[in-house]
Amino acid sequence: MRFFLFLAFAAVIAAHSIFLRQNTTLPSTFKWTSTDILVSPKNDSRGIAGIKDPSIVYYRNTYHVFASTAKAEGYNLVYFNFTNFSEAGAAPFYYLDQSGIGTGYRAAPEVFYFEPQKLWYLIYQNGNAAYSTNKDISDPAGWTAPKNFYRGTPALIEEGLKTPQQGYWVDMWVICDDAECHLFSSDDNGRLYRSQTTLSSFPEGMSDPVIAMQANKNDLFEASLVYSISPNLYLLLVECIGAAPSSAGGVRYFRSWTSSSISGPWAALAATETNPFLGENNVLFTGTQWTNSLSHGEIIRTQLDQTLRITPCNMRFLYQGVEPTANVTYNALPWRLGLASQIDGKC
Ligand SMILES: *[C@@H]1O[C@H](CO)[C@@H](O)[C@H](O)[C@H]1NC(C)=O
Ligand SMILES: *[C@@H]1O[C@H](CO)[C@@H](O)[C@H](O)[C@H]1NC(C)=O
Ligand SMILES: *[C@@H]1O[C@H](CO)[C@@H](O)[C@H](O)[C@H]1NC(C)=O
Ligand SMILES: *[C@@H]1O[C@H](CO)[C@@H](O)[C@H](O)[C@H]1NC(C)=O
Ligand SMILES: *[C@@H]1O[C@H](CO)[C@@H](O)[C@H](O)[C@H]1NC(C)=O
């Protein structure tokens, strides 16, 4: 009897410490510090103008980054890794057009480990929404050829791209709960889309998209990120364009929303330019303020699977920024990567 009491007591202690392991309450304001530029294009024969859209996981004591390479002629993808951010700028680039991903238009990657199939997935845009898989994240040559989630551009998206003006179908993002996988995308025209399929069918069977949210173009622009905080709390971030005039595609910042379900509805959290999730107004630069834009990037994930679980304190966000005076065509902008670290978060 005494032994069983002891067991019950031990179980309560264990359950309690699991419960305490993370704070699953999101604050309604965020504060960050940012580094100087950490990663720039290499001076190599590729002639890349900008390094963009990083997706990042920390796996086996190594940061693994997938990013877009941009220049006036177009986009492709790159992979690099490092063990300490002090070495990020020196990490060799592996250009992913050398893998099965191949040459041509590919951009805005998202990496995660799909536990049911024991495979890494890279989600990206190629005119459609595409994916490649790899058994080993450390083997960048191992990525498979692109496969599309949709047959052509879904009719709803086709229509949205022209309304009220010409947009672009961009920034695909996958997150799963314990039953479904959801695919988000944006149209640079004020609409956030969502499709879904079952966890067991993924990556096949994506449904026709629905409009997950709609607003003015600049208030719901692109680069959506959805994370789980707990099994019934989700965080949505969308990159938006601020009010200040700028020659470099606008000053970028992130708004945020929460929901108890990946399919919404979404309630505003820190969702204005003055109280953003991440933006010029809540970031303190420890060195030079090298950018006004805190643009497309990702929160560093240490939990690697398709549920994209993060702990909402001491978050670190690898973002793209650009020198404010840059005045060239959008694809040729000199985007660089910096790291924002959350401060005042309560764990
Ligand atoms: C959890 O985070 C919330 C929001 O930041 C904060 O109000 C609360 O005090 C935190 N709880 C603990 C136990 O730190
Ligand atoms: C590339 O060369 C330019 C000067 O030509 C220099 O300013 C820049 O720091 C170099 N970048 C790297 C990553 O070495
Ligand atoms: C990362 O590098 C910095 C600067 O060299 C060093 O101070 C820090 O201790 C390193 N961090 C780890 C975890 O090794
Ligand atoms: C780091 O990247 C290189 C390719 O540049 C790759 O060969 C190597 O396996 C990677 N290392 C780790 C630890 O993933
Ligand atoms: C950007 O450059 C163009 C010429 O290439 C010039 O007409 C325009 O005024 C410049 N814009 C800014 C904000 O400097």
From TrEMBL:
InterPro entries for the chain: GH62_arabinosidase, Glyco_hydro_beta-prop_sf
Record carries keyword Protein biosynthesis: no
Keyword tags: Glycosidase, Hydrolase, Secreted, Signal
Enzyme Commission designation: 3.2.1.55
GO cellular component labels: extracellular region
Coiled-coil stretches noted in the UniProt entry, renumbered to this chain: none
GO MF assignments: alpha-L-arabinofuranosidase activity
Signal peptide positions (record): 1-15
Any single biological process term in GO: L-arabinose metabolic process
Compartments reported by the entry: Secreted
Catalytic activity annotation: Hydrolysis of terminal non-reducing alpha-L-arabinofuranoside residues in alpha-L-arabinosides
PANTHER family for the chain: ALPHA-L-ARABINOFURANOSIDASE, ALPHA-L-ARABINOFURANOSIDASE AXHA-2-RELATED
Biological role stated in the UniProt entry: Alpha-L-arabinofuranosidase involved in the hydrolysis of xylan, a major structural heterogeneous polysaccharide found in plant biomass representing the second most abundant polysaccharide in the biosphere, after cellulose.
Family membership noted in the UniProt record: Belongs to the glycosyl hydrolase 62 family.
Protein name: Alpha-L-arabinofuranosidase
